[in-house]
Design a protein that fits this description.
The protein is mainly alpha-helical. The protein has a single domain, classed as Na+/H+ antiporter like fold, CATH 1.20.1530. The chain has helices at residues 4-25, 30-41, 51-56, 58-73, 78-84, 87-113, 119-131, 137-147, 152-182, 191-222, 226-246, 251-265, 269-277, 281-293, 298-329, 333-338, 348-360, 363-394. α8 runs antiparallel to α9 (152-182), α8 (137-147) runs parallel beside α18 and α17 (348-360) runs antiparallel to α18.
């Protein structure tokens, strides 16, 4: 029996704990410490964690994302939406859409100025700009938990990052369909079906998560012991991850739906979340250290000006979209001023979409999108938690002593 995997799991936890403590001492989010030490011990620098080890620990990442999505879904209380109305949905749509539009316009201008505006480059711009909509909820959740942030902007932020995945999948599906049409229908699938495909993915994901959420609510009435309830939540999150992948849906959306339905159906959801809160830290530490190890420093050298445009304009689109949405729905002033900064992190969903993009575009263009998204992940995951802390602190929703 090969027990090497236990060595790597223990190493991830010890390294994460040490660097988490270090970054906390210098007033930085602990998640940044996890990512930095992962990058340090990963293949890009010291090579203590090998590529093979990262692959063998992939299940940890899937499980962690399931718990993160479940926790995010628990923020989607109908009572909150009744109080604030359509605000989170409108803000999520605008911050995603304007990130896409701004990046697309910036790329078109760049290609026009450099004399490279061709059909292939326009297709490249369409697909890459669609990925700009994606925001990773994991780092945001960790920062909110670490600093125990509370207030109207925190509530809005958690709702927006939950909705963001759905808007991203829709915009990506539309942009890929248009890209294929520009490529002389390089895909044999009719355009209308390509547009409907992401909608089907959302429906399947929400359906699976919703049904299992009902089962969890009923199960918490039948099993009343704390250990039994923890076991039930873990089992149903695992089942949701499996079924959503099997059905071709999004495991993140499915687990968010699971958490959302449970939070709205069961009056025990806060008690159960409190129990899960003490189970998940080792999983989250391993996930973020592993995420850091998977970041490729070499991708920075291959990005060039297109990658810089993507990073800068994407953030500008997110910030402006959030500000516009907050003005539109008359949200708390801090939402418009600061929340856009907390939407920088980009990881799992964006990387997944980049893989799909590499299959939808000709070889070199698809490979370039993959490199740019990997570089964006490296920068955004390291800087994003710091900007999230700044946004929450400026809004007055974490203690000043932090």
């Amino acid at each position: 029996m090969d027990l090497t995997i236990l060595f790597y799991a223990g190493l991830l936890l010890i390294a994460g704990l040490l660097f988490g403590k270090l970054t906390k001492l210098i007033k930085m989010p602990t998640v940044t410490g996890y990512l930095i030490v992962g990058l340090l011990i990963g293949p890009s620098i010291l090579g203590i964690i090998t590529e093979e080890a990262i692959g063998s620990l992939e299940l940890v990442s899937n499980v962690a994302l399931g718990f993160i999505a479940f926790s995010i879904g628990n923020e989607l209380k109908l009572s909150y939406f009744k109080k604030v109305g359509m605000g989170p949905i409108i803000i999520a749509i605008l911050e995603s859409l304007l990130a896409v539009i701004f990046v697309l316009i910036a790329f078109v201008i760049y290609f026009a100025i450099t004399g490279q505006l061709s059909v292939d480059n326009l297709r490249f711009a369409l697909v890459l700009s669609a990925i700009a909509a994606a925001t990773a909820p994991a780092a945001t959740l960790m920062v909110v938990r670490q600093y125990k942030a509370k207030g109207p902007m925190t509530d809005m932020l958690m709702s927006v990052v939950a909705i963001d995945d759905g808007t991203t999948i829709i915009f990506f599906g539309i942009c890929v369909a248009i890209s294929n049409m520009l490529g002389n229908a390089s895909s044999s699938t009719p355009m209308i079906l390509q547009v409907l495909e992401p909608l089907w993915e959302i429906v399947v994901s929400l359906g699976i998560g919703g049904i299992i959420g009902v089962l969890l609510s009923l199960g918490c009435k039948f099993w009343t012991g704390r250990g039994n309830r923890i076991s039930l939540v873990v089992a149903l999150i695992f089942l949701t991850l499996y079924l959503s992948e099997l059905a071709g849906g999004s495991s993140l959306l499915a687990c968010m739906a699971l958490g959302g339905v449970f939070a709205n159906m069961s009056h025990k959801y806060e008690e159960v979340n409190g129990l899960i809160y003490f189970v998940t830290p080792p999983i989250f530490i391993m996930f973020f250290v592993l995420s850091g190890a998977d970041l490729k420093l070499s991708s920075l050298l291959a990005v060039g000006i297109i990658g810089v445009i993507y990073l800068v304009i994407r953030l500008f689109g997110k910030v402006f979209g959030t500000w516009l949405g907050a003005k539109w729905v008359h949200a708390d002033p801090n939402v418009g001023k600061y929340m856009g900064l907390a939407l920088l992190p980009q990881a799992g969903v964006a990387i997944g979409l980049s893989i799909i993009a590499s299959q939808a575009l000709p070889g070199e263009l698809g490979a370039k999108i993959r490199v740019i998204v990997l570089c964006s992940t490296l920068v955004c995951e390291l800087i994003g938690p710091i900007l999230t802390k700044i946004a929450l602190k400026k809004s007055g929703e974490i203690p000043v002593k932090e």
